Automatic annotation (TrEMBL):
One of its GO terms (molecular function) is protein dimerization activity. It comes from the Eukaryota. Residues 238-264 have a biased composition (Low complexity). Residues 265-288 have a biased composition (Basic and acidic residues). Signal peptide: none annotated. This is Maf-domain-containing protein. The keyword Hydrolase applies. Its cofactor is a divalent metal cation. NCBIfam families: maf. SUPFAM superfamilies: HLH, helix-loop-helix DNA-binding domain (SSF47459), ITPase-like (SSF52972). Residues 232-288 are annotated as: Disordered. InterPro entries: bHLH_dom, HLH_DNA-bd_sf, ITPase-like_fam, Maf-like.
Length: 350
């Protein structure tokens, strides 16, 4: 008799399986992906926040990243507001959003009708290639009381998907037959790559298939590790460095401490250029995130001013909304440049 599959033997999996973990999504596919790697105690709490961002204002990367972040923050906030004393606060919230981006840059989500479903799939076939963007956002409460009370990390991943051509196995009647199965009615782009759609419509992909399904699992685990185990890791001095500082009370002891610190440094594995680059990117992302959190705090002041009938509330809200949108768009552009291996002048990151 075949033994059942065992969960991944990873510290983050073991840790989260003893905690309250919320998946801010009603997608059964995202739940299944997380369960396959061993996260079996998921609490499903879909976001109720309307997904009404203006697609004309946001580019695809900004749109999907902002939507995922909004879902994550809304579910976390609602959970804290409605929690019972007998139930612990969540240790982790995972949210995600997936969109299809056509060759001409249009954002596709779920089909609105059968006719819309047909038009959508025929367009994807006729243009051959489209991109699937999934943004995942994870949040964990901070162990200290530093504002805003949580650590949040996000990542947007891209996979290119190629449909078969009309003259090579994908005529209109095949698309119509697929639409009538209703497999793709609840999926961005109108098809499911893990089901009949993957066998019937898709010729090949470039990138990860789990990203097309709705959740880049490997990156999700990496983000969970960061917000859970690595809060402020870059800001903390190593024990050996701290000891060297506190014991250097004379020139001789200072020299000894310096030698000890140097020896300790020699024992540590040296970072590769790629690791240094990744650390730098992570540090920059964290700094830019802190700026956005500051604007969120300003926004919290707006309802009070508006409730008092003060015009300052409306002016502040418009100003903060505009500035936050500019930051989000610039951050997404910088991340895309850096992910492609390019460099950005530091002055544009301030």
């Amino acid at each position: 008799m075949r033994r059942p599959l065992q969960p991944l033997d990873l510290p983050i999996i073991k840790h989260l399986n003893s905690k309250r973990v919320i998946l801010a999504s009603a997608s059964p596919r995202r739940k299944q992906l997380l369960q396959q790697i061993g996260l079996t105690n998921l609490e499903i709490t879909p976001s109720t926040k309307p997904e009404d961002l203006d697609k004309k204002t946001y580019g695809p990367w900004e749109y999907v990243a902002t939507t995922a972040r909004n879902k994550c923050l809304e579910v976390y906030s609602t959970t804290l507001d409605t929690h019972l004393a007998s139930i612990p606060d969540p240790s982790l919230v995972i949210a995600a959003d997936t969109i299809i981006v056509t060759r001409d840059g249009r954002i596709l989500e779920k089909p609105r009708s059968e006719a819309d479903h047909m038009r959508m799939l025929k367009h994807l076939r006729d243009t051959r290639m489209h991109r699937v963007l999934t943004s995942v956002c994870v949040l964990a409460p901070r162990e200290d009381a530093r504002h805003p009370g949580y650590d949040i990390q996000s990542h947007t991943e891209e996979t290119k998907v190629y449909f078969w051509e009309e003259g090579n196995g994908l005529p209109d009647d095949v698309i119509e037959s697929y639409v009538k199965t209703r497999e793709g009615v609840d999926k961005a782009g109108g098809y499911g790559i893990q089901g009949i759609g993957g066998m019937l419509l898709v010729e090949k992909i470039e990138g990860s298939v789990d990203n097309v399904i709705g959740l880049p699992v490997k990156k999700t685990l990496s983000l969970a590790e960061k917000v859970t185990f690595q809060q402020d890791r870059d800001d903390k001095a190593t024990p050996s460095t701290t000891a060297a500082v506190t014991t250097s009370t004379s020139s001789s002891s200072a020299a000894a401490a310096a030698a000890a610190a140097a020896a300790s440094a020699d024992d540590k594995p040296r970072l590769t250029e790629e690791e240094k680059k990744q650390n730098h990117i992570a540090s920059e992302q964290k700094r830019r995130q802190a700026i956005r959190e500051g604007f969120d705090r300003l926004t919290e002041l707006v309802p009070g001013l508006e409730g008092q009938g003060r015009s300052e509330g409306l002016v502040l809200k418009r100003t903060v909304d505009y500035m936050r949108d500019q930051i989000v768009q610039r951050q997404a552009l910088i991340e895309r440049i850096e992910q492609a291996g390019g460099t950005v002048d530091p002055k544009y990151k301030k």
